[in-house]
């Protein structure tokens, strides 16, 4: 999303998505809330029940949350930088607002790594050693071999490389 990039936002956190009970009239008739599209999008996302008989989460809102949010639940310890509010047009017995908080995490960003593995069934020990030395010289954080057995119980070697997340060279 361009706005997130321009603001330098890397990670989005979100509380559980509010859902309610009741019914909604959509093009295919009267359905329970959340609407079928919204419920489908919310699969795998934590939801929180509110005692309201009106739709609080639309398919569009659910799609934004599913596509952009990195973590659901309470956000980590942080220092608040900015707060923004948006008001909805429906009238409820409670404020119909969306609050967005931009914060800076108090914890240092940890490096992310990736593990690359392959199984080698026919290579000389000299070639394996050459490959490991070359991988470490090229920037792999670690490299190691594990003896394994392949089909028909043939001995083989599994190569494991650990490298920075975006470094596949």
Automatic annotation (TrEMBL):
The keyword Iron-sulfur does not apply. It comes from the Bacteria. Gene3D superfamilies: Transcriptional regulatory protein pf0864 domain like. It holds the Pfam family Ni_insertion. Keywords: Nickel. This is DUF111 family protein. The lineage of its organism: Bacteria, Bacillati, Bacillota, Bacilli, Bacillales.
């Amino acid at each position: 999303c361009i706005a997130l990039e321009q603001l330098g936002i890397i990670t989005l956190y979100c509380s559980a998505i509010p859902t309610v009970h009741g019914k909604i009239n959509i093009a295919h008739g009267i359905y329970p809330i959340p609407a079928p599209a919204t419920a489908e999008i919310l699969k795998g996302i934590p939801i929180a029940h509110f005692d309201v008989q009106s739709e609080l989460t639309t398919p569009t809102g659910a799609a934004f949350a599913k596509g952009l949010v990195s973590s659901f639940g309470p956000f980590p310890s942080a220092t608040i930088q900015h707060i923004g509010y948006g008001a909805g047009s429906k009238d409820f017995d409670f404020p119909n607002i969306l609050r967005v908080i931009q914060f800076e995490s108090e914890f240092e960003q940890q490096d992310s790594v990736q593990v690359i593995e392959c199984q080698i069934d026919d290579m000389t020990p000299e070639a394996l050693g050459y490959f490991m030395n070359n991988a470490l010289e090229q920037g792999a954080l670690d490299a190691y071999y594990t003896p394994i057995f392949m089909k028909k119980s043939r001995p083989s070697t599994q190569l494991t490389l650990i490298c920075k997340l975006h470094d596949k060279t």
